[in-house]
Amino acid sequence: MIFSLFSRSAIALVLMVGSFTAASASAFETKATHAVLMDGATGDILFEKEGDVLMAPASMTKLMTMTLLFEALKEDRLSLTDTMIVSENAWRRGGAASGSSTMFAEVNSRIPVEDLIRGVIVQSGNDACIAIAEGMSGSEETFAQEMTRRGRELGLERAEFRNSTGWPHPEHLMTARDLAVLARHMIYDLNDYYPYYDEREFTWNGITQSNRNPLLYMNMNVDGLKTGHTEASGYGLVASGEQNGRRLILVVNGLTSERERSEESEKLLRWGFREFKTYDLYAAGEVVENAEVWQGVYDLVPLVVAEDVKLTLTRAARRDMDVSVNWEGPIPAPIKAGQEIGTLTIAAPNAPTRQFPIYAGANVDQIGLFGRATSSLLQMITGE
Q1: What are phi and psi of 240, to 5 degrees?
Q2: How far apart are CA 154 and CA 133, in angstroms?
Q3: What's the structural domain count of the chain?
Q4: Does any domain span residue 75?
Q5: What is the reported pTM?
Q6: Torsion angle, CA of 28/29/33/34, rounded to 10 degrees?
Q7: Of residues 49, 62, 226, 310, which has the active-site annotation?
Q8: What crossing angle do the helices spanning 176-189 and 62-74 adopt, rounded to 10°?
Q9: What is the spatial distance between Cα 60 and Cα 69, in angstroms, rounded to a whole number?
Q10: Segment 263-278 mean pLDDT
Q11: What mean pLDDT is predicted for residues 311-335?
Q12: pLDDT tens digits, residue range 19-76?
Protein backbone atom coordinates (compact mmCIF):
# COMPACT_ATOMS: atom_id res chain seq x y z
CA MET A 1 0.00 0.00 0.00
CA ILE A 2 1.26 3.51 -0.83
CA PHE A 3 0.67 6.12 1.85
CA SER A 4 0.46 9.82 0.95
CA LEU A 5 -0.44 11.81 4.04
CA PHE A 6 -0.34 15.47 4.97
CA SER A 7 1.54 16.19 8.14
CA ARG A 8 -0.61 18.39 10.39
CA SER A 9 2.31 20.66 11.23
CA ALA A 10 3.15 20.93 7.53
CA ILE A 11 -0.44 21.85 6.64
CA ALA A 12 -0.43 24.59 9.24
CA LEU A 13 2.75 25.94 7.75
CA VAL A 14 1.23 25.79 4.27
CA LEU A 15 -1.64 27.97 5.40
CA MET A 16 0.74 30.40 7.01
CA VAL A 17 3.42 30.89 4.37
CA GLY A 18 1.98 29.70 1.07
CA SER A 19 3.95 29.02 -2.07
CA PHE A 20 7.72 28.80 -2.55
CA THR A 21 7.43 29.32 -6.28
CA ALA A 22 10.31 30.99 -8.08
CA ALA A 23 9.18 34.31 -9.46
CA SER A 24 7.92 34.20 -13.01
CA ALA A 25 8.78 36.81 -15.58
CA SER A 26 5.46 38.52 -14.89
CA ALA A 27 6.38 39.06 -11.24
CA PHE A 28 9.22 41.41 -12.14
CA GLU A 29 10.46 42.99 -15.33
CA THR A 30 14.10 43.79 -16.00
CA LYS A 31 15.94 45.25 -18.96
CA ALA A 32 18.76 42.74 -18.46
CA THR A 33 18.86 40.04 -21.14
CA HIS A 34 20.09 37.54 -18.54
CA ALA A 35 19.26 37.62 -14.84
CA VAL A 36 19.26 35.29 -11.83
CA LEU A 37 18.35 36.11 -8.24
CA MET A 38 19.35 33.39 -5.78
CA ASP A 39 18.79 32.95 -2.06
CA GLY A 40 22.23 32.53 -0.55
CA ALA A 41 21.36 30.16 2.29
CA THR A 42 19.19 27.72 0.34
CA GLY A 43 20.37 28.18 -3.24
CA ASP A 44 16.73 28.61 -4.30
CA ILE A 45 16.29 30.59 -7.51
CA LEU A 46 13.87 33.43 -6.78
CA PHE A 47 13.88 34.99 -10.23
CA GLU A 48 15.46 34.17 -13.56
CA LYS A 49 15.42 35.44 -17.08
CA GLU A 50 17.38 33.41 -19.64
CA GLY A 51 19.29 32.11 -16.64
CA ASP A 52 20.44 28.93 -18.38
CA VAL A 53 21.30 30.48 -21.75
CA LEU A 54 25.02 30.65 -22.50
CA MET A 55 26.43 34.18 -22.69
CA ALA A 56 29.73 36.05 -22.76
CA PRO A 57 30.61 36.70 -19.09
CA ALA A 58 33.28 39.38 -19.68
CA SER A 59 35.21 40.22 -16.48
CA MET A 60 32.74 38.32 -14.31
CA THR A 61 34.95 35.41 -15.46
CA LYS A 62 37.40 36.58 -12.81
CA LEU A 63 35.26 34.94 -10.14
CA MET A 64 36.54 31.61 -11.49
CA THR A 65 40.11 32.89 -11.59
CA MET A 66 39.83 33.93 -7.94
CA THR A 67 38.18 30.63 -7.05
CA LEU A 68 41.26 28.69 -8.17
CA LEU A 69 43.55 31.10 -6.36
CA PHE A 70 41.54 31.13 -3.12
CA GLU A 71 41.27 27.34 -3.11
CA ALA A 72 45.04 27.13 -3.45
CA LEU A 73 45.41 29.51 -0.50
CA LYS A 74 42.89 27.56 1.57
CA GLU A 75 44.78 24.32 0.88
CA ASP A 76 48.15 25.98 1.75
CA ARG A 77 49.49 25.46 -1.75
CA LEU A 78 50.07 29.22 -1.88
CA SER A 79 50.42 32.00 0.66
CA LEU A 80 49.45 35.66 0.48
CA THR A 81 53.12 36.67 0.67
CA ASP A 82 54.22 34.51 -2.25
CA THR A 83 55.13 36.55 -5.33
CA MET A 84 54.31 36.08 -8.99
CA ILE A 85 56.06 37.65 -11.94
CA VAL A 86 54.34 39.91 -14.44
CA SER A 87 55.66 38.51 -17.69
CA GLU A 88 55.93 40.52 -20.88
CA ASN A 89 52.91 38.55 -22.10
CA ALA A 90 50.85 39.61 -19.05
CA TRP A 91 52.06 43.18 -19.43
CA ARG A 92 51.33 43.43 -23.15
CA ARG A 93 48.01 41.57 -23.17
CA GLY A 94 46.67 42.77 -19.84
CA GLY A 95 48.43 46.00 -19.11
CA ALA A 96 47.82 49.62 -20.06
CA ALA A 97 49.34 49.05 -23.49
CA SER A 98 46.44 46.69 -24.34
CA GLY A 99 43.77 49.27 -23.61
CA SER A 100 42.10 46.84 -21.20
CA SER A 101 41.41 46.97 -17.46
CA THR A 102 44.74 46.95 -15.67
CA MET A 103 46.41 47.31 -12.29
CA PHE A 104 49.33 49.05 -14.07
CA ALA A 105 51.86 46.40 -13.09
CA GLU A 106 55.34 46.86 -14.52
CA VAL A 107 56.81 44.24 -16.84
CA ASN A 108 59.00 41.64 -15.10
CA SER A 109 58.00 42.93 -11.66
CA ARG A 110 57.28 40.51 -8.83
CA ILE A 111 54.03 41.17 -7.02
CA PRO A 112 52.77 39.55 -3.79
CA VAL A 113 49.70 37.36 -4.20
CA GLU A 114 47.65 39.59 -1.91
CA ASP A 115 48.30 42.62 -4.08
CA LEU A 116 47.40 40.63 -7.20
CA ILE A 117 44.12 39.70 -5.52
CA ARG A 118 43.28 43.38 -5.02
CA GLY A 119 44.47 44.12 -8.52
CA VAL A 120 41.91 41.64 -9.86
CA ILE A 121 38.99 42.32 -7.53
CA VAL A 122 39.19 46.09 -7.06
CA GLN A 123 40.89 47.15 -10.29
CA SER A 124 39.73 44.29 -12.56
CA GLY A 125 43.30 44.05 -13.80
CA ASN A 126 43.79 41.70 -16.73
CA ASP A 127 47.53 41.88 -16.17
CA ALA A 128 47.03 40.60 -12.61
CA CYS A 129 44.84 37.74 -13.88
CA ILE A 130 47.37 36.61 -16.45
CA ALA A 131 50.19 36.83 -13.90
CA ILE A 132 48.16 34.57 -11.57
CA ALA A 133 47.35 32.14 -14.39
CA GLU A 134 50.95 31.87 -15.49
CA GLY A 135 52.19 31.67 -11.90
CA MET A 136 49.83 28.83 -11.01
CA SER A 137 49.76 26.81 -14.24
CA GLY A 138 52.68 27.96 -16.37
CA SER A 139 50.44 29.37 -19.09
CA GLU A 140 47.06 31.01 -19.32
CA GLU A 141 45.83 28.30 -21.67
CA THR A 142 46.58 25.55 -19.16
CA PHE A 143 45.03 27.63 -16.37
CA ALA A 144 41.86 28.08 -18.44
CA GLN A 145 41.62 24.32 -18.89
CA GLU A 146 41.81 23.97 -15.12
CA MET A 147 39.09 26.61 -14.76
CA THR A 148 36.80 24.53 -16.97
CA ARG A 149 37.63 21.30 -15.15
CA ARG A 150 37.06 22.78 -11.70
CA GLY A 151 33.91 24.47 -12.95
CA ARG A 152 32.46 21.06 -13.84
CA GLU A 153 33.15 19.86 -10.30
CA LEU A 154 31.30 22.87 -8.89
CA GLY A 155 28.25 22.24 -11.06
CA LEU A 156 29.00 24.63 -13.93
CA GLU A 157 27.96 21.99 -16.43
CA ARG A 158 28.21 24.04 -19.63
CA ALA A 159 30.75 26.74 -18.76
CA GLU A 160 33.79 26.90 -21.02
CA PHE A 161 36.83 29.05 -20.23
CA ARG A 162 39.44 30.07 -22.76
CA ASN A 163 41.28 32.67 -20.68
CA SER A 164 41.54 34.00 -17.12
CA THR A 165 40.20 37.49 -17.81
CA GLY A 166 36.96 37.23 -19.75
CA TRP A 167 38.58 38.64 -22.88
CA PRO A 168 36.15 38.03 -25.77
CA HIS A 169 36.37 34.56 -27.30
CA PRO A 170 33.53 32.79 -29.15
CA GLU A 171 33.94 29.67 -27.02
CA HIS A 172 34.36 31.45 -23.69
CA LEU A 173 30.82 31.16 -22.29
CA MET A 174 28.87 30.81 -19.04
CA THR A 175 25.28 31.13 -17.88
CA ALA A 176 23.88 33.53 -15.30
CA ARG A 177 23.09 30.52 -13.12
CA ASP A 178 26.75 29.42 -13.38
CA LEU A 179 27.85 32.79 -12.03
CA ALA A 180 25.35 32.63 -9.16
CA VAL A 181 26.55 29.13 -8.21
CA LEU A 182 30.15 30.31 -8.37
CA ALA A 183 29.42 33.37 -6.23
CA ARG A 184 27.69 31.17 -3.64
CA HIS A 185 30.75 28.90 -3.49
CA MET A 186 32.93 31.97 -3.04
CA ILE A 187 30.78 33.40 -0.23
CA TYR A 188 30.17 30.24 1.79
CA ASP A 189 33.09 27.93 1.05
CA LEU A 190 35.87 30.50 0.60
CA ASN A 191 34.53 32.98 3.13
CA ASP A 192 37.95 33.81 4.62
CA TYR A 193 38.78 35.59 1.35
CA TYR A 194 35.39 37.02 0.51
CA PRO A 195 36.00 40.37 2.33
CA TYR A 196 38.35 41.43 -0.48
CA TYR A 197 35.25 42.00 -2.61
CA ASP A 198 34.05 44.71 -0.24
CA GLU A 199 37.18 46.85 -0.60
CA ARG A 200 36.40 50.16 -2.28
CA GLU A 201 39.80 51.23 -3.68
CA PHE A 202 43.36 50.04 -4.20
CA THR A 203 46.56 51.84 -5.12
CA TRP A 204 49.35 50.22 -7.13
CA ASN A 205 52.28 51.82 -8.86
CA GLY A 206 51.07 55.21 -7.58
CA ILE A 207 47.67 54.88 -9.28
CA THR A 208 44.50 54.62 -7.18
CA GLN A 209 41.45 52.94 -8.70
CA SER A 210 37.98 52.47 -7.22
CA ASN A 211 35.91 49.30 -7.14
CA ARG A 212 33.50 49.38 -10.08
CA ASN A 213 30.63 47.62 -8.31
CA PRO A 214 28.00 50.40 -8.08
CA LEU A 215 25.96 48.68 -5.35
CA LEU A 216 28.84 48.95 -2.87
CA TYR A 217 28.14 52.66 -2.59
CA MET A 218 24.33 52.53 -2.16
CA ASN A 219 23.89 51.76 1.54
CA MET A 220 22.31 48.38 0.71
CA ASN A 221 24.70 46.17 2.71
CA VAL A 222 26.14 44.85 -0.55
CA ASP A 223 29.64 43.41 -0.07
CA GLY A 224 30.59 41.98 -3.51
CA LEU A 225 31.26 40.81 -6.18
CA LYS A 226 32.28 41.71 -9.78
CA THR A 227 31.31 43.80 -12.78
CA GLY A 228 31.86 42.93 -16.43
CA HIS A 229 31.61 44.66 -19.78
CA THR A 230 32.52 43.91 -23.36
CA GLU A 231 30.79 44.76 -26.59
CA ALA A 232 29.59 41.16 -26.87
CA SER A 233 28.32 40.84 -23.29
CA GLY A 234 26.95 44.28 -22.59
CA TYR A 235 27.14 45.53 -19.01
CA GLY A 236 26.92 42.86 -16.31
CA LEU A 237 27.24 42.45 -12.57
CA VAL A 238 27.44 39.69 -9.98
CA ALA A 239 26.42 41.17 -6.63
CA SER A 240 25.57 39.94 -3.16
CA GLY A 241 24.36 41.51 0.03
CA GLU A 242 22.85 40.67 3.40
CA GLN A 243 19.90 42.24 5.16
CA ASN A 244 18.35 41.08 8.43
CA GLY A 245 20.30 37.85 8.32
CA ARG A 246 19.29 36.99 4.73
CA ARG A 247 21.75 36.92 1.86
CA LEU A 248 20.82 37.25 -1.80
CA ILE A 249 23.01 36.73 -4.86
CA LEU A 250 22.24 38.63 -8.06
CA VAL A 251 23.54 38.18 -11.61
CA VAL A 252 22.59 40.48 -14.49
CA ASN A 253 24.08 40.81 -17.96
CA GLY A 254 23.33 42.35 -21.33
CA LEU A 255 22.53 45.87 -20.11
CA THR A 256 23.29 48.86 -22.32
CA SER A 257 25.16 51.23 -19.99
CA GLU A 258 26.74 51.59 -16.57
CA ARG A 259 23.73 53.58 -15.43
CA GLU A 260 21.27 50.93 -16.59
CA ARG A 261 23.36 48.23 -14.90
CA SER A 262 23.29 50.19 -11.65
CA GLU A 263 19.56 50.93 -11.77
CA GLU A 264 18.42 47.45 -12.78
CA SER A 265 20.67 45.74 -10.25
CA GLU A 266 19.46 47.96 -7.43
CA LYS A 267 15.79 47.41 -8.32
CA LEU A 268 16.12 43.63 -8.55
CA LEU A 269 18.02 43.29 -5.30
CA ARG A 270 15.72 45.59 -3.34
CA TRP A 271 12.70 43.69 -4.71
CA GLY A 272 14.24 40.39 -3.63
CA PHE A 273 14.82 41.54 -0.07
CA ARG A 274 11.35 43.06 0.13
CA GLU A 275 9.27 40.25 -1.36
CA PHE A 276 10.97 37.05 -0.19
CA LYS A 277 11.63 35.42 3.14
CA THR A 278 13.32 32.15 4.06
CA TYR A 279 11.16 29.84 6.14
CA ASP A 280 12.30 26.88 8.22
CA LEU A 281 9.86 24.04 7.56
CA TYR A 282 11.60 21.24 9.44
CA ALA A 283 14.75 20.98 11.52
CA ALA A 284 17.16 18.09 11.05
CA GLY A 285 15.87 15.09 12.98
CA GLU A 286 12.34 16.47 13.31
CA VAL A 287 9.48 13.97 13.03
CA VAL A 288 7.33 14.68 9.98
CA GLU A 289 5.01 11.65 10.28
CA ASN A 290 4.60 8.25 11.98
CA ALA A 291 4.40 5.15 9.80
CA GLU A 292 2.69 1.84 10.56
CA VAL A 293 5.00 -1.11 11.21
CA TRP A 294 4.35 -4.76 10.24
CA GLN A 295 5.34 -7.42 12.78
CA GLY A 296 7.34 -5.02 14.93
CA VAL A 297 7.58 -4.65 18.68
CA TYR A 298 6.11 -1.17 18.10
CA ASP A 299 3.14 -0.38 15.90
CA LEU A 300 4.58 2.90 14.62
CA VAL A 301 7.98 4.27 13.66
CA PRO A 302 8.73 8.01 13.47
CA LEU A 303 9.82 9.36 10.09
CA VAL A 304 12.38 12.18 10.19
CA VAL A 305 14.38 14.41 7.85
CA ALA A 306 18.15 14.24 8.06
CA GLU A 307 18.80 17.88 7.21
CA ASP A 308 17.06 21.18 7.76
CA VAL A 309 14.32 21.80 5.23
CA LYS A 310 14.28 25.48 4.31
CA LEU A 311 12.45 27.17 1.47
CA THR A 312 12.51 30.76 0.29
CA LEU A 313 8.98 31.99 -0.33
CA THR A 314 7.30 35.17 -1.49
CA ARG A 315 5.57 37.03 1.29
CA ALA A 316 2.51 37.48 -0.92
CA ALA A 317 2.16 33.84 -2.00
CA ARG A 318 0.29 32.30 0.96
CA ARG A 319 -1.67 29.59 -0.77
CA ASP A 320 -1.49 26.50 -2.97
CA MET A 321 1.63 24.83 -1.54
CA ASP A 322 1.18 21.08 -0.99
CA VAL A 323 3.28 19.18 1.54
CA SER A 324 2.97 15.38 1.53
CA VAL A 325 4.81 12.48 3.12
CA ASN A 326 5.01 9.39 0.89
CA TRP A 327 6.10 5.86 1.76
CA GLU A 328 5.17 2.27 0.97
CA GLY A 329 3.80 0.49 4.01
CA PRO A 330 3.14 -0.86 6.47
CA ILE A 331 6.91 -1.12 6.90
CA PRO A 332 8.13 -4.62 7.78
CA ALA A 333 10.28 -4.99 10.88
CA PRO A 334 13.10 -5.06 11.71
CA ILE A 335 13.75 -1.36 10.99
CA LYS A 336 17.02 0.41 11.68
CA ALA A 337 17.25 4.06 12.63
CA GLY A 338 18.49 5.99 9.61
CA GLN A 339 16.95 3.56 7.14
CA GLU A 340 15.50 5.48 4.19
CA ILE A 341 11.75 5.00 4.12
CA GLY A 342 10.21 7.49 1.67
CA THR A 343 10.06 11.11 0.63
CA LEU A 344 8.78 14.45 1.80
CA THR A 345 7.37 16.19 -1.27
CA ILE A 346 6.70 19.92 -1.56
CA ALA A 347 4.94 21.17 -4.67
CA ALA A 348 3.53 24.49 -5.81
CA PRO A 349 2.16 25.86 -9.08
CA ASN A 350 4.75 27.18 -11.54
CA ALA A 351 7.63 25.83 -9.46
CA PRO A 352 9.74 22.68 -9.54
CA THR A 353 8.62 20.01 -7.10
CA ARG A 354 11.06 19.60 -4.23
CA GLN A 355 11.66 16.21 -2.65
CA PHE A 356 13.58 15.34 0.50
CA PRO A 357 14.32 11.78 1.71
CA ILE A 358 12.79 10.72 5.03
CA TYR A 359 14.32 8.16 7.36
CA ALA A 360 13.33 5.94 10.26
CA GLY A 361 13.89 7.88 13.46
CA ALA A 362 14.21 4.80 15.70
CA ASN A 363 15.03 1.11 15.72
CA VAL A 364 12.06 -1.25 15.66
CA ASP A 365 12.83 -4.91 16.34
CA GLN A 366 10.82 -7.73 14.88
CA ILE A 367 8.42 -9.56 17.18
CA GLY A 368 9.17 -13.18 18.09
CA LEU A 369 8.27 -16.27 16.08
CA PHE A 370 5.02 -16.89 17.98
CA GLY A 371 4.00 -13.24 17.57
CA ARG A 372 4.73 -13.33 13.85
CA ALA A 373 2.66 -16.49 13.43
CA THR A 374 -0.24 -14.93 15.35
CA SER A 375 0.05 -11.72 13.33
CA SER A 376 0.01 -13.64 10.04
CA LEU A 377 -2.99 -15.69 11.15
CA LEU A 378 -4.92 -12.56 12.11
CA GLN A 379 -4.12 -11.07 8.71
CA MET A 380 -5.47 -14.15 6.96
CA ILE A 381 -8.67 -14.08 9.06
CA THR A 382 -9.36 -10.34 8.96
CA GLY A 383 -7.69 -9.40 5.68
CA GLU A 384 -6.04 -6.43 7.39
Answers
A1: -150, 145
A2: 19
A3: 2
A4: yes
A5: 0.80
A6: -10
A7: 62
A8: 30
A9: 15
A10: 92
A11: 79
A12: 343 444 346 899 999 999 999 998 989 899 999 999 999 999 999 999 999 999 999 9
Selecting among 7, 87, 101, 124, the annotated active-site residue is: 124
CA dihedral 87, 88, 93, 96 (to 10 degrees): 100
**Same domain for 9 and 54?**
no
Q: What is the pLDDT of residue 322?
A: 80
Residues 203 and 76 in one domain: yes
Residues 93 and 222 in one domain: yes
Q: Are residues 78 and 202 in the same domain?
A: yes
Q: How many angstroms separate the CA atoms of 88 and 127, rounded?
A: 10
Residue 229: per-residue pLDDT: 95
The CATH number assigned to the domain holding 310 equals: 2.60.410.10
Contact partners, residue 206, CB within 8 Å, separation at least 6? none
Residue 68 CA: distances (Å) to CA of 151, 187, 196: 10, 14, 15
Mean pLDDT of the chain, nearest integer: 87
Tell me whether residue 336 is one of the annotated catalytic residues. Answer: no
Catalytic residue among 7, 19, 59, 87: 59
Q: Give domain status of residue 35, yes or no.
A: no
DSSP characters for 311-362? EEEESS--S--EEEEEEESSEESPB-TT-EEEEEEEE-TTS--EEEEEEE-S
Per-residue pLDDT reduced to its tens digit, 166-213: 999 999 999 999 999 999 999 999 999 999 999 999 999 999 999 999
Are both 70 and 9 inside the same structural domain? no
> What is the residue-wise DSSP string for 122-143?
TT--HHHHHHHHHHHHSSHHHH
Final residue in a domain of this structure, among 202, 226, 250: 226
The answer to whether residue 59 is catalytic is: yes
Q: Residue 90 belongs to what domain range?
A: 49-226
CATH for 89:
3.40.710.10
Q: Is 74 a catalytic residue?
A: no
